[in-house]
Design goal:
By secondary structure, this protein is of the alpha+beta class. It has two domains: 116 residues, Jelly Rolls (Sandwich); 74 residues, Orthogonal Bundle (Arc Repressor Mutant, subunit A), CATH 1.10.10. The chain contains eight helices and ten strands. The strands form three sheets. A four-stranded antiparallel β-sheet has the order 1-8-3-6. Helix 3 packs across helix 4 and helix 5 crosses helix 8. It starts with 25 loop residues before the first helix and ends in a 6-residue tail after the last helix. The relative contact order is 0.12.
């Protein structure tokens, strides 16, 4: 008498820790496990370049990456900083003949899981409920980019700098932050180093922050929040 055997694919990667797959069914996770492979990058290494053909999607397992675009004059603007649990390059992977919409480099030693776009498209075809989840994620990203565009157009550098300091202080409280240089801050806020320097000096003079050997401490968070909201004009 013949015995029937069911072979279940072992899942070694923690797909539940990733935002996109956290609530996916076991069959979806097994599909990702079958297709994905791990890669590691050192701090400062580039993962992909803006304008190249999109071939893969990336999931951040540990570390931190910066998603940025480069202007014709060479000036860079940071679109997002992504940490463990997040993913990138999903949008062009779902476009016909999509190109990478931005460049990505590592801000720390970073471990990624990589899935080819054809395999991602296969998963979406096979699991429509998960495809709906991906649509929700794309909608959230569109809302985030709309907010970023509005922030750059409607808020002053002073407001954006205050918001940045508050956000990074919160990240640091969860051991997720990193020491930013003034050049880093300028790329994320959408300005230049000199303006950041003047703004930080102004914040220090107003008693909002204290600077000591490159470290910034928030002294008056309420004052910064009022500034970020446009309620403080001093």
């Amino acid at each position: 008498m013949e015995n029937d055997f069911t072979i279940s694919l072992m899942i070694f990667n923690d797909w539940r820790s990733l935002k996109l797959t956290a609530h996916a069914g076991e069959d979806v996770l097994q599909a990702f496990e079958a297709y994905a492979w791990p890669v590691s990058y050192a701090e400062g290494e580039t993962v992909l370049w803006e304008g190249d053909d999109c071939e893969t999607i990336y999931f951040v397992i540990s570390g931190m990456v910066e998603v940025y675009r480069t202007a014709k004059d060479g000036r860079e603007h940071t679109l997002r900083v992504l940490r463990a649990g997040e993913s990138f390059n999903l949008v062009p992977a779902l476009m016909q003949n999509g190109k990478n919409l931005a460049s990505v480099r590592c801000l720390a030693q970073t471990d990624l899981l990589v899935v080819e776009k054809k395999d991602m498209q296969s998963i979406l075809d096979r699991y429509p409920k998960f495809a709906v989840r991906v649509l929700s994620e794309l909608a959230e990203r569109l809302a985030g980019m709309t907010g970023l565009a509005g922030d750059l157009a409607l808020n002053t550098v002073r407001q954006r700098t205050a918001s940045f300091l508050i956000r990074e202080a919160t990240n640091n409280s969860h051991l997720r932050g990193k020491p930013w240089t003034q050049d880093d801050m300028a790329r994320q806020i959408g300005t230049v180093r000199d303006v950041i320097g003047r703004t930080l000096r102004d914040f220090e003079e107003n008693g909002f922050i204290r600077r000591d050997r490159g470290k910034i401490s928030l002294i008056d968070r309420d004052g910064l929040e009022q500034t970020a909201n446009g309620d403080n004009t001093t």
